[in-house]
Amino acid sequence: MDIYDSIDDFFEIISDPRNVSPIHFNIFFPSKFKNRQGSKSLDDSFELIQKFKRYDGHNHKDLESRVFSILQKIDRFSEIEANDALEYYAVKSRNADSFKTGYMITDGILSEKERYHLFASYHLFFGHIKIMVGKEIKNLVENKDKLSNNREFPEMFKSLDAFNVFRYYTANYIGPNVKKDHSYLYHMLFEKELLRFKPSKKNYLNWLVSDNYITESDVDNFYNEDDKNPLYSLSKCKSETRLDSFIKSLEKYFPTN
């Protein structure tokens, strides 16, 4: 399950109180409201959630492991991938402003009074866990950003010399056909093992813009009606001239003699 599926799964779970065990309800309930609610009130809410399981055999989901899985995946991500995941989570969180409770009355699981009581407590839980997980993701991303700012070269490159190959090529050999030149460089950097990981074509293009290697207006040249892919495949952009230019750039920082 990739990070986007994991985030979708998380919001699907918390959207229905039947998925949440009383234990996890207690763990993720905002502590500042526990004293206001009173232990008896919270115990009653846990009891109402437990009632669902007795009613229809609905199994609780392991919410804690879902949260840990999301944070663990993002912790292993590159800076670019982590920022993408944070943005996706933020969009899902903004749209996840309701949860399923109507069936509680129609199916006769709870009385109107019981439903209202659970709704009030679950609303606090629902809002708190969304914000809490979002903050944890944001902290991970900000730590990656700080590390990146202290580096001499971008995270995707294996070394400063590897990054210098990129810089030398872009400074000297990017011609009028910007898309083909950058497409070729993208593939060759990975092929010659100068990158720690191969970013998606979209993320690579976004990085070129954010670090001012191309302008916003250049981006239009990377998309057209015939080809929605922002970069060409290697077979569509390779040429003897580009190969010669890349070898010169490579030899400057990784001489073979």
Radius of gyration: 26 Å
The fraction of residues assigned to DSSP E strands is under 5%
Average of per-residue pLDDT values: 82
Count of helical stretches? 13
- Biggest β-sheet: count, sense, barrel? none
Question: What low-confidence regions span 5 or more consecutive residues with pLDDT below 50?
Answer: none
Whole-number count of domains: 2
Number of strands: 0
Helical residue percent?
55-70%
How many angstroms separate the termini?
Answer: 46 Å
What is the ordering of alpha helices and beta strands? HHHHHHHHHHHHH
Q: What does the overall shape look like?
A: elongated
Structural class: mainly alpha
Describe the fold and architecture.
Helix content is 67%, strand content 0%. The protein has helices at 3-14, 22-27, 31-37, 39-56, 63-76, 79-95, 102-106, 112-149, 160-173, 178-191, 201-210, 234-237, 240-253. The model has no long low-confidence stretch (mean pLDDT 82). The protein is elongated, with a radius of gyration of 26 Å. The two termini are 46 Å apart. It has 2 domains: 3-149, no CATH class; 160-253. It is built from 13 helices and no strands. The protein is an all-alpha fold.
